[in-house]
What we know:
Layout: E1 7-10, E2 16-21, H1 27-36, H2 39-46, H3 55-61, E3 69-75, E4 82-90, E5 97-104, H4 113-127, E6 132-138, H5 142-150, E7 154-159, E8 162-168
Parallel strand pairs: 5-6
Antiparallel strand pairs: 1-2, 2-3, 3-4, 4-5, 6-8, 7-8
Amino acid sequence: MPRDGARRLTLRDGAEVLVRQLERTDRAVLGAAVAALSDRTRYLRFAAPKPRLTERELDFLVDLDHHDREALVAIDPETRRGVGVVRYVAVPGERGTVEIAATVADDWQGRGLGGALLALLAERARAEGHRVMRASVLAENARSIGMLKRGGFAVQAGGGGLLEYETLL
Length: 169
């Protein structure tokens, strides 16, 4: 993926999205997209009930240097609505390791968007010199676990309802 250009991505069902790096100017769009998620999707993503993102959380999510903190956003070219985002953040004290997260709009789930975005994020992480991607996911989040497994992630640890997956880049 070009560092600062958009890429057109065709999903397995033939739908197309535009994918580009998330920028600080996307703050309001990101907040609105998370607020539009169903309660269940927000719960599965944040591992807690979360009606909206706080101002501080939004600031953190758009504080990107495109090296140790990167995010990609998928946009529906017909509606111009953000329909998915993936991000990584370098893990302090673990050189070359990044923690990832993914969110896909309810009406775009099950179409391959999360996995496609994850593959593009892995490309970006590799290009920036990172070698390990890690994800924490609720044990009940079968769709995310399936996406991670299809992306080459394997379970590393878990306790209670939270599992940790990891893959080498």
